[in-house]
Each structure stands twice: as structure tokens, then as C-alpha cells.
Amino acid sequence: MNYQISRAGQTIGTYDIEALKAAVLSGQVLASDLAWTQGMPEWKSVSIVLAGVCVPPSQGSAISAERIRDVASNHRAMNLCLLLSIVAYVIYLFLAGGLQEDGNKAALGMLFLGFAFFGVGLFVFWCIKVYKLADALQAGPAFLWLLGMFVPCLSYVFVLILSQKAGSFLKANGVKVCFLGADTSTLP
User: pLDDT class for 73, splitting at 50, 70, 90?
Assistant: First the structure.
């Protein structure tokens, strides 16, 4: 069985299990690189594929820990943006409904402008986090995930898919994942 090995989105080689073990021990392949073979549902880190192989802790561990922390922080921020956008929309609808009943058009206009500025700022921050998370996960071209944010309604689907990928990545690397993201006490 041959494994394709990828680093930073670029394929760096194909190895059978014995050649992969040797490449890891020689430092040619890092434990944090991703591996995939036919029949695997998703890419997994080489360290997971070679769970029984002793990998020297000096190689790849700093990069791996940094990448895990990067995924965790962007995942949490992206999930918070999702939650905040939904809560803000509900609050806006509630307040606007009350002002509309009162017929206070000036206050309704000010409320709209305030929420519009808030919404644009939140959306820009959210897009940055989606891009950074997709890049850290190496989940394909990050700019495509960013473009998905501009498709009305489907942007929520893209965010949920990316969130699921981040959760799986974190769990596969030993991080406990809660409602909004990683449990920081379990980060490397």
C-alpha cells in the first residue's frame, strides 16, 4: 500500500509503509506531514499513520504544535463569528420590529446603520479567520474557501464544513474539542 505524502499543500512523494518509516527516521518526511492512501476518508498526519513507529521528538514537533495551535485559535474565532452573526441578526430583528411598530423611522435608520457597520466588520474578520483556518488545515486552496463566504446562505454551509474538518484535525492530534472549539488546556 503506497501513501501519498503532502506538506503545505504540495505532494512531496509516494512511499510504501517501510519506505515511509525510513523517510521519517531520516528526517526526509516530517511527523506533521499529511499522508493519504486509497480507502482513507481524509488525509491524516504521518504520526497517526505510523502510530507504532518511534519518531524522534526533535523533528517536526515544533511545527506540528504551532500548526495545531494555529488551527485551534482560528477554529474558535471562526465559530464565535458564526454564533455572533446569528445572535446579532436575531437581536436586530427584535429591535427593528419594536421600532417599526412605534413608527420611529429615525431610530430605525440609526439601528440599521449601526448593525450594518457591525455586520461588515464582523464579516471581514470572519473571512480572515476562514482563510487562515483553511490555510492552516491545508484544506485545499484557502482563497476558494474565502470565495465561498460571498455566496449567500451557502457561506454557513462552507463554515460548518470547515469547522468539522478543523474539529477532526484537532481530535486526531489529541486535542479535546468543545462546542466553540478546542479546549485550550489540551493544546500542545
Answer: very high
